[in-house]
Amino acid sequence: MGKPPRKAAAAPDTEADRYDAYSTLVDLFSGHDLTRSQRKVAQYILDNASEVVFLSASELADKTEVSQPSISRFAQAIGLPGYASLIRELRQALGAPRVVRRTQAATDEVVESLATEAANLLAIDKANDGFQRVEKAAQLLVSSDPLVTLGFRASASLAQYFAFFARKFHRDVRLIDAGGSYVTDTLEQAHAAGARALLAFVLPRYPREAFDALETARALGYQTVVVSNTELAPFRRYAEHVLVAGVGSSLVFNSQAAPMYLTAALLDYMCKVNPTTTQKQLDNFDRGALARHVFDE
Fold it and tell me: Which residues have a Cβ under 8 Å from the Cβ of 178 and sit 6 or more positions away?
């Protein structure tokens, strides 16, 4: 006979508890010189902590596609004696295990994933120091003319969203949403025209070309703001500001609900840097759109 299914994993009682647990784990993992495989383990734990508390070291190794010794080395890399200590830390962060009563509808993984999305949204505030990071990033981005934004593959849609709305109040926004030599051309041309800030969206799976672009931007003298789901990725050394929003990984494809909200909040803070000028630009757009019958209202 096979093993009976495990009980529902330990989980915080409220969404506020969820983001407190997430923040506690981020603090535990941050500030260490982790290898690429160790960062992969850390991110898996952040995304699936309530599952990991029930896994053996070998099971976690299988889940993260690393060797079992790598799991032990990860625990030691973050200052713990071993895997058992790591599990104790997870349990403390999550609270005592409990059995969750679920309705029939809530057994559907799509429905259950909504709780993760809500937790990711609630975590944005604390992960970004009460939006202080967002405000500082907004001031930097507004001061750059031109302003460059980039995002590749799954991150391209966020860069496009940002550029679309930023152009309504910023004079010159230049979008890079595809790789190749075009990236360096655009970065060089924008910098020659006066650009000093770059906003990059780097979400899982992290494209290598995004790291190459950030390295090029650093060499040219750009100050960089990165929107990502973690501060543990190797792009950190290229970024003056990292804005964090969790990515939902419960479904077949990742959900970017929290990064999308964070992007909208960043645009809002940018509008508040020079509110009078911004309002004039928005009014000009509305008058032009009305004259051209852009919208059917």
Answer: 152, 156
Q: Residue 284: in which H helix or E strand, if any?
A: helix 275-291
Looking at the fold, whether 136 and 254 belong to one and the same domain comes out as yes
State the sign of the Cα–Cα–Cα–Cα dihedral 264, 266, 269, 270. Answer: negative
Q: Which structural domain, as residue segments, surrounds residue 194?
A: 126-289
* pLDDT (0 to 100) of residue 18: 61
> For position 197, which CATH number holds?
3.40.50.10490
pLDDT, one tens digit per residue, over 11-24 is 454 555 566 777 78
Residue 114 lies in a domain: no
Output the pTM of the full model.
0.68
Rounded to whole angstroms, how far apart are CA atoms 207 and 73? Answer: 26
* Count of the separate structural domains present in the chain: 2
Distance CA(33)–CA(232), nearest Å, equals: 9
Beta strand segments in 76-185, E: 147-151, 173-176
